[in-house]
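Below is how a single chain appears once it has passed through the pipeline. First comes the sequence as given, then the structure the pipeline wrote out for it. We keep one example in the README because the format questions we get most often are answered faster by looking than by reading.
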Amino acid sequence: MRAQVISPGIYTYGAMVIGGLLRSAGASVTLHRDFSAELPPVVFLSLYSTQHLLDPAIRDYISRARESGTKCYVGGPVSAVPEMVLGELDPDAVVIGEGEPVVASLLTKGSPDRIPGTAYDRGGEVVINPPVPPLTLERPLPFIPDDIGSQDIRGANVYIETHRGCLGACSFCQVPRFFGRIIRSREIEDILAEVRAFREKGARRISISGGTGSLYKYKNGEMDPESFITLLSGMADIMGPRNVSAPDIRVDCISDEILDAIRKFTIGWVFFGIESGSDRILARMGKGVTSSRAADAIAACRQHGLAVAGSFIVGYPNEESDDYEQTKSFIADYPLDDLFISIAEPLPSTPLASLAMRTPRPENPLFMAHTGEYRPLNLTEAEARFFDLSLHGAMFRTRPLLVAGSAYDSFLAEGRKQGREIRAVYDILEKYSGRHGAASSRCGRVGNIQDCP
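Resulting structure:
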């Protein structure tokens, strides 16, 4: 049987994994980043952003597919609230959570009925079948497209998975809700086999993902730096050390030996999710660390000759002016080599989404009109903080950027774009918040996967 896997915009690692599983099940598989290919009998859409639920191109494609008789299944992080996906996109079914145990059954059976880990609409009733328990991470090689070398995601052609799960409880993050808080690590030999396959297909730089990279092989409350270092060394042997990155690490999951290995076997960058300079906001985010811990981590990286990037979130519900000023002070006191700034987005199924729905809009920075120095720009408070922190961060980088003309306009346009898109997320969350748990299903409830026994 012919099957397509579509991941809009980029070849996600998850889409390639699904493609490999379908190929192993005997399907003739193609992988696409757009909707231009001829419709096959079966299509799997790997959707990684809530914005995909609002994309008319995706809606139109699914509508055309179903009208032509193509079976259309949707999976990925958007599946956290399946009734939202069904209501907005109307696919044949939603694959809930980890798709590996599910997709082959959908391919062969052609119906989600009684297949664990699926949700579908049955005559206006949303049916959610019981989830599939987490399984081993052994699997066939991913389906790697021939043009993978042309892809650029934060400097890498692909981010490959080393483990699943996260110890953290960040209220804005789907990872611990999607994969759980128990770390499940892949075998080094399987990961390195993938690295070789990607290199043979033309990948020039590979990064590792899975949340905090240094939690690889974490077990019984203990990190395993030796296994993480062995993994980085093996990847560097295949790709070359300047073609490997292991950027995403929690500030409380580093050590001297881990930082030394990152300097020796990778491009030499570390990416910390710092998020805020306010300990009050960090506590509300469930970060489990303080701003002083983040400052110590930056200093440790400097001692090991590493470049450091940091992400920051502004406009968190109930973030006050003093909280924001503390973030500005942190950036000035601890200069970074690069910064990534975003307005708080309430991803479905996260505690932030619940907080967003409880916070009256007049008290939420995303909806409050900005009345300060950027008032002539007609921004909300969250948009103004994004714009202001972008300008501030450029000034206080280790190598300051001159912000004028196109850079100024780019920061302003991005702030407005994020504000507009995230307000649309609020609208869709409110649209479905009243339906959560409103109908029956095979596991006794409708709603998030965590609701099922």
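The chain is about 35% helix and 15% strand.

See the next section for the split statistics.
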